[in-house]
Amino acid sequence: MAPPPSALYTTTFFLAFLLTLFVAASLRLLAILPHGPFRPTPIRRRPIATRVLIVLGSGGHTHEMFYLLRDLDTRKYTHRTYVVSSGDAFSASRAVEFEGVLEARAREAEREKEERDLASTNPTIKTRRQRDNADDTITARPFCVGPDHYTITTLPRARAIHQSLLTTPFTCLLTLLSAFGPLLSSPSELSSPNHNQNPSTPAPSASPDPYDISTRTPPSLLLTNGPATSVILILASLILKFFDIRGCASQGLCKTIYVESFARVRKLSLSGRILVWCVDRFLVQWEELEGLGPGGRSEFWGVLV
């Protein structure tokens, strides 16, 4: 006996609906995923405050990451969020130690600046220096260091050592759900790091503080060098871009940079083979790895660590 026409119409409508969803999702993925090798975009005005999320592994990954960050300018990257896996006390302690180095470096730079200002007693030299540095907004910005300008977030491990493959999907799902926390939640609310401002002095204007705004939005940049947690975090960032949550896609937030480990000489790591398809920039440290990935996306920049 043939099925009634209403059942056929329902089945056809359901299949058409699924096909429409599939096509729409595919087009959306094509819109948010990078295509081919990196092409520099026109230089735009740099924001006053920028939040960067740094994924730390354990052991070698952490050591390489902090070597990559050795020249980090805290006037540009005003808030750092370090993501570590549960049980990785080593990476968390290294993050605190690294922030201490940044703070000491900032104090030394401020001291040298004060000495230069005191040495320039000649009004002609001072006027010329002010004119030459009139457009140098970066050097005029304060250093953003100290406990108020970094946070350390712990995520559950996606897969523990010797964990059964049967339970791995459940722990990966838990890690994915936890990954939205550091991407969306606000770190400590920051105020403009003007150390000489009198707290009793009212603000000169009612405009929002850019340093505070930067902590309320998703990070502008995600930086990783291959730990397994980074795959889950970048997947979470793609979900945010897919649905344009908090302007991740429309405002160009959650840009991702992947730096392949120095130990990878002839072939990419498992994390690299997965993420080469979806990160904004994929950097390698050996010439043999240049041009790998879809459209030759991997970029050779020499030894970075």
Primary descriptors:
305 residues, alpha/beta, Rossmann fold, seven-stranded parallel β-sheet, 7 strands, 11% strand, UDP-N-acetylglucosamine transferase subunit ALG14, transmembrane helix, Oligosacch_biosynth_Alg14, transferase
Explain how this protein is built.
The protein has 305 residues and is an alpha/beta fold. The protein has a domain of 197 residues: 3-Layer(aba) Sandwich (Rossmann fold). It is built from 9 helices and 7 strands, in the order H-E-H-E-H-H-H-E-H-H-E-H-E-H-E-E. Helix 9 links the parallel strand 5 and strand 6. It is globular and about 95 Å long. About 8% of the residues have low confidence. One of its GO terms (biological process) is dolichol-linked oligosaccharide biosynthetic process.
Q: Tell me the distance between the termini.
A: 72 Å
CATH domain fold name of the domain at 44-189 and 209-259: Rossmann fold
How are the strands ordered across the major sheet? Answer: 3-2-1-4-5-6-7
Segments where pLDDT lies below 50 for 5+ residues?
Answer: 125-135, 195-206
Q: Radius of gyration in whole Å, from Cα?
A: 24 Å
CATH architecture of the domain at 44-189 and 209-259: 3-Layer(aba) Sandwich
Indicate the mean pLDDT: 82
**Strand percentage:** 5-15%
**Name of the CATH class of the domain at 44-189 and 209-259:** Alpha Beta
- How many H/I helical runs? 9
Q: Note the main sheet.
A: 7 strands, parallel
Principal-axes shape call:
globular
Helix coverage percent: 40-55%
- DSSP summary, beta strand count: 7
Helix-strand topology string? HEHEHHHEHHEHEHEE
Q: Give the helix/strand class.
A: alpha/beta
